[in-house]
């Protein structure tokens, strides 16, 4: 008996610093787990002070995934009293060679991360997350055990039998290996290793000694086993060497939830309940309350052989019957006294979460708060309770309370492809409004149409009366007119413009330098910026332009020949004496003719 209240039944677990027993709380008539610490700690006043402070802090935690701490004490040895869970630990599953599926590993990690998220928010760091400290109720719900105990043992300078400090080396974070300050990130790291082991059966960085194990992970990043599949990315980040690069417990929860979208629903966990060893030595049996008024059954005495002696038989028969009745009645009362206390769930709908918390505290229930929505409700109002009001609920059972986050969310209508005006009208029709409007260029959507609705990934509903941000197309971006291709080929020029979403328009013009049919230039010219689908003129050469035959009268034949050639004409010959002055040409001076036309000189 510890503290005059907790009657030890049987051992259910043992560690280097403590042993765990199944016990009976004879005051509240319930089964509990009692962790009895090493007797060497009983003489350490500093430890006892720290132990008391940490136990009180742990007892203040109230979360579905944190083991409930009921009491603590010091009766020759320090001990801690918590709720008893019949589903065993994750370590017992691993030792039984039950490898979890990836979906089951995600479920374990998610529930543990939610427990850490709550505890870290309350300012408590566990320091010793490992499979042995992840316990399960008979329904499979996970709870984290031993909050505060690792810190109390560490600050007392307690060492394990191999000389290592408290905090299992197999799951210690790199900063613990380096002797640095331990924060919430160490819990996240240890949980990542634990989930990896539960699914793959392998724990990384394990060496022959604790020192070698710690050194291995101080400089090597954690790489999840391939069996973790969609969980790999989340666990890899949680296993970063630098604690600042790891997610918080809240971010870890979100990572598990995102990975869950790619995994099937998990099957029932392969729970391995604690093995209660009652084979060695004496064990204390559960007995009725010492002050119970129950009367044990009295054996019926043997009757005399003389069947005809009624005067002697009836008194004995009456006494025997009364004794039996008294025993039965006493047994009934003893049975009723030993039942777990129950209390009717009060009417909580319409009240507040604080009201539900007070009711759970009074009934000794574990409060599980869930979010819900209902039109006509206000945020913080209790919508539903499970089990319903009036139900008798045993102490230690879960009371689920659904608390309103406000009215039902509004589905955002389909806005993609609508004009800004029509989008505003659609939103107003469901009680919403247009928020920030952002103009963004789009190669595929016409200017003025909605291209995007700015919501969280996967979000389709918003609070009533909310404003919704949208993105409206500003049309395609401007493009720069390219240079004329070196080939001067018309088809090449068309393709160059088409690649930039520009339209070629052919314009023919004479050119002294560019051959007929070749591209002379683009208009506007290269480097000019124009709208998409703009027309760019492609100037194609028709060859040199017609020109007038020059005046040659009075010139010598030689002078006239040079002048005609300079104008692009070909001299075909001289009509008359070549030594005499030129009288004219055929065709005559001033007439327009194509480049290369033949001309005869007349003297």
Brief synopsis:
This protein is an alpha+beta fold.
Question: Can you walk me through this structure?
Answer:
- The protein is α+β, with helices and mostly antiparallel strands and 603 residues long.
- It has 5 domains: 6-260, Orthogonal Bundle (Transferase(Phosphotransferase), domain 1); 342-404, Trypsin Inhibitor V, Chain A (2-Layer Sandwich); 410-473, Trypsin Inhibitor V, Chain A, CATH 3.30.10.20; 479-541, Trypsin Inhibitor V, Chain A (2-Layer Sandwich), CATH 3.30.10; 547-602, Trypsin Inhibitor V, Chain A (2-Layer Sandwich), CATH 3.30.10.20.
- The strands form 10 sheets. The protein has a 5-stranded antiparallel β-sheet with strand order 1-2-3-5-4, with helices on one face. It has a 3-stranded mixed β-sheet with strand order 9-12-10, covered by helices on one side. A 3-stranded mixed β-sheet has the order 14-17-15, with helices on one face.
- α1 runs antiparallel to α4 (149-155).
- The longest helix is centred in the middle third of the chain and has 28 residues, at 310-337.
- Mean pLDDT is 84; it is low at 158-167, 277-310 and 331-338.
What is the element layout, followed by pairings?
Elements: E1 6-14, E2 18-25, E3 30-37, H1 45-59, E4 69-75, E5 77-83, H2 90-95, H3 102-121, E6 134-136, E7 142-144, H4 149-155, H5 174-177, H6 184-200, H7 210-218, H8 232-238, H9 249-260, H10 310-337, E8 342-344, H11 353-363, E9 366-372, E10 382-386, E11 392-394, E12 398-404, E13 410-411, H12 420-429, E14 433-440, E15 450-454, E16 461-462, E17 467-473, E18 479-480, H13 490-499, E19 503-509, E20 519-523, E21 529-530, E22 535-541, E23 547-548, H14 557-566, E24 570-575, E25 584-586, E26 592-593, E27 598-602
Parallel strand pairs: 9-12, 14-17, 19-22, 24-27
Antiparallel strand pairs: 1-2, 2-3, 3-5, 4-5, 6-7, 8-11, 10-12, 13-16, 15-17, 18-21, 20-22, 23-26, 25-27
Helix pairs in contact: 1-4, 3-6, 3-9
């Amino acid at each position: 008996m510890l503290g005059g209240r907790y009657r030890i039944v049987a051992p259910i677990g043992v560690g280097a610093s403590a042993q765990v027993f199944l016990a009976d709380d004879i005051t509240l008539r319930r089964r509990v787990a009692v962790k009895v610490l090493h007797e060497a700690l009983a003489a350490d006043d500093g430890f006892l002070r720290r132990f008391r402070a940490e136990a009180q802090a742990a007892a203040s935690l109230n979360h579905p995934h944190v083991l409930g701490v009921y009491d603590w004490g010091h009766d020759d040895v320090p001990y801690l009293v918590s709720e008893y869970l019949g589903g065993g630990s994750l370590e017992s599953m691993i030792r039984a060679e039950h490898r979890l599926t990836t979906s089951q590993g995600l479920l374990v990690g998610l529930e543990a991360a939610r427990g850490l998220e709550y505890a870290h928010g309350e300012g408590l760091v566990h320091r010793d997350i490992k499979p042995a400290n992840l316990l399960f109720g008979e329904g499979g719900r996970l709870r984290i055990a031993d909050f505060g105990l690792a810190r109390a043992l560490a600050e007392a300078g307690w060492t394990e039998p191999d000389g290592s400090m408290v905090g299992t080396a197999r799951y210690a974070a790199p900063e613990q290996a380096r002797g640095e300050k331990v924060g919430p990130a160490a819990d996240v790291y240890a949980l990542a290793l634990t989930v990896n082991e539960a699914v793959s059966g392998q724990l990384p960085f394990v060496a022959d000694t604790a020192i070698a194990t710690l050194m291995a992970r101080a400089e090597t990043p954690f790489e999840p086993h391939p069996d973790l599949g969609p969980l790999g990315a989340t666990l890899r980040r949680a296993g970063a060497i630098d604690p600042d690069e790891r997610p918080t417990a809240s971010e870890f929860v979100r990572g598990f939830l995102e990975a869950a979208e790619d995994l099937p629903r998990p099957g029932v966990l392969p729970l391995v309940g604690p093995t209660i060893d009652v084979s060695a030595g004496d064990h204390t049996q559960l007995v009725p309350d010492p002050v119970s008024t129950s009367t044990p059954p009295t054996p019926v005495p043997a009757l005399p052989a003389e069947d005809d002696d009624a005067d002697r038989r009836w008194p004995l028969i009456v006494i025997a019957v009364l004794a039996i009745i008294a025993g039965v009645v006493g047994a009934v009362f003893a049975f009723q006294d030993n039942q777990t206390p129950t209390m009717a769930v009060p009417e909580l709908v319409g009240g507040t979460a604080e009201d539900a918390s007070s009711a759970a505290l009074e009934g000794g229930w574990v409060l599980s708060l869930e979010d819900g929505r209902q039109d006509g409700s206000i945020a913080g109002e209790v919508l539903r309770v499970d089990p319903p009001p009036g139900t008798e609920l045993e102490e230690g059972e879960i009371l689920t309370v659904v608390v309103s986050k406000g009215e039902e969310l509004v589905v955002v209508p389909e806005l993609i492809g609508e004009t800004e005006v029509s989008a505003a009208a659609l939103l107003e029709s469901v009680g919403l409004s247009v928020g920030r409007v952002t103009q963004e260029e789009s190669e595929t959507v016409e200017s003025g149409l909605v291209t995007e609705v700015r919501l969280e990934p996967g979000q389709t509903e918003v609070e009533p009366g909310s404003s919704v941000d949208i993105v409206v197309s500003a049309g395609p971006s401007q493009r720069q007119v390219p240079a004329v291709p070196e080939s001067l080929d018309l088809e090449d020029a068309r393709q160059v413009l088409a690649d930039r979403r520009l339209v070629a328009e052919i314009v023919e013009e004479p050119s002294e330098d560019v051959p007929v049919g070749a591209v002379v230039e683009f208009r506007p010219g290269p480097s000019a910026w124009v709208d998409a689908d703009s027309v760019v003129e492609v100037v194609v050469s028709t060859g040199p332009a017609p020109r007038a035959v020059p005046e040659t009268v009075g010139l010598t034949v030689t002078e006239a020949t040079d002048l005609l050639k300079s104008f692009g004409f070909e001299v075909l010959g001289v009509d008359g004496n070549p030594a005499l002055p030129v009288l004219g040409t055929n065709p005559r001076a001033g007439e327009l003719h194509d480049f290369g036309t033949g001309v005869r000189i007349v003297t």
